[in-house]
Design a protein that fits this description.
Order of helices and strands: HHHH
Helix content: over 70%
Largest sheet: none
Shape: globular
Distance between the termini: 19 Å
Length: 71
C-alpha cells in the first residue's frame, strides 16, 4: 500500500524529493531492489547533490538500508 501511495504522490508532484526517497526505501525493503535503484537514479539525476540520496545509495550498495524515513 505504501508503494502505491508514494507513486501517487510523485504523479501529483514529480518534484517531491521525499517521495522518491521513501519510495526507493520502501521498494528496497520489500526486496524490489531494481525498482528502488531506478527511482533513486532518477532522483539523483534531478538532485545530484542531495545528501539523503547519496547516503541511501551507499546503504543500497551495502545491503543495509536505514530504518528511518526522511521527513
Amino acid at each position: 500500500e505504501a508503494i502505491s501511495y508514494f507513486r501517487n504522490a510523485l504523479s501529483i508532484d514529480p518534484e517531491l524529493q521525499s517521495g522518491y526517497y521513501n519510495l526507493a526505501l520502501t521498494l528496497f525493503e520489500t526486496e524490489r531492489t531494481e525498482d528502488a535503484v531506478a527511482y533513486l537514479d532518477l532522483a539523483q539525476t534531478k538532485w545530484p547533490d542531495m545528501p539523503d540520496f547519496v547516503q541511501l545509495r551507499r546503504h543500497f550498495s551495502e545491503s543495509n538500508p536505514p530504518r528511518s524515513l526522511m521527513e
